[in-house]
Amino acid sequence: MNERDNAVRETREAKGRASASGSRRLVSAGVWIALYFGVFVVFGSACMPIPPLYLIMPALIAFVAAPVFTMLVAKAPLHGPVFIAAVLPCAFLMLQGNIWVVGLTGTVAGLAAEALLGVGRFRSRRWSLAAYVCFTQNLLGGFLPIWIMRDLYFEKTAAMGEEFCAALAAITPTWVLFAQVALVAVCAVAGFSFSRVLFKKHFEKAGMA
After folding, report:
1. How much is the pTM?
2. Where residue 171 falls among pLDDT bands split at 50, 70, 90?
3. How far is CA 207 from CA 48, 75, 121, in A?
4. How many Å apart are CA 130 and CA 117, to the nearest integer?
5. How far is CA 183 from the centre of its chain?
């Protein structure tokens, strides 16, 4: 009887610990997602009025947000948070009147990142890097219409002023699209490498060193 009671008690305690651990992960996920969104808002607001900075904004975010992404994966190694982080700024942009393409790229980038993290079981440095490179293309849809829906894009952007639209149109030949994608990927790799050094102890503890 005592052995049965002990077994029941141990089972309950194990479930309690698992539940507490799950709750901590969800709280951590919420914090890091909010931080990523904050980085997006700050850099978006700072870069938007200036056409050249506007074009490199995703690359700047890719570098600066890398520590946030890596800590999100380390502290909340489960499916869902990374996808939410990827689509949240895209949903915000759509609410601001952005063309629907940004929602599509955010969804694809989020799903791809989740899939790659799953392959590495949220512990592989290589797969985490690949996931982050995909993740950072989530904002591509906010810029893609410059080239594939040019007339509609500048019609919707007219509120920024004629000078802004003219300057942006002048510096966006087709090759800039490919340069932007490549620059974002390079900054993602650089930021990820920097974050690994910055939070080395956290990754060692999480088994991701």
Report:
1. 0.85
2. very high
3. 39, 11, 11
4. 8
5. 16
CA distances from 6 to 9, 17, 20, 104 (A): 5, 16, 21, 53
Alpha-carbon distance of 208 to 206, in angstroms, equals 6
Chain center to CA of 137: 8
pLDDT at 109 over 90: yes
CA distance linking residue 95 with residue 55, whole number of Å = 21
Residue reference for tokens 């978006």: 44
Residue of 73, 184, 193, 83 whose CA lies nearest to 136:
184
pLDDT at 189 over 60: yes
Query: What are the residues whose beta carbons fall under 8 Å from the beta carbon of 10, sequence distance 6 or more?
Result: none
Q: How far apart are CA 60 and CA 183, in angstroms?
A: 9
DSSP 78: S
For 11-55, write each residue's pLDDT tens digit: 454 444 445 556 788 899 999 999 999 999 999 999 989 999 999
Answer positive or negative: Cα dihedral of 112, 116, 121, 122.
Answer: negative
Q: Given pLDDT bands bounded at 50, 70 and 90, which one contains residue 4? A: low
> Could you tell me if 141 and 90 are in contact, meaning their C-beta atoms sit under 8 angstroms apart?
yes
Question: DSSP assignment, residue 76?
Answer: -
CB atoms < 10 A from the CB of 66, how many? 26
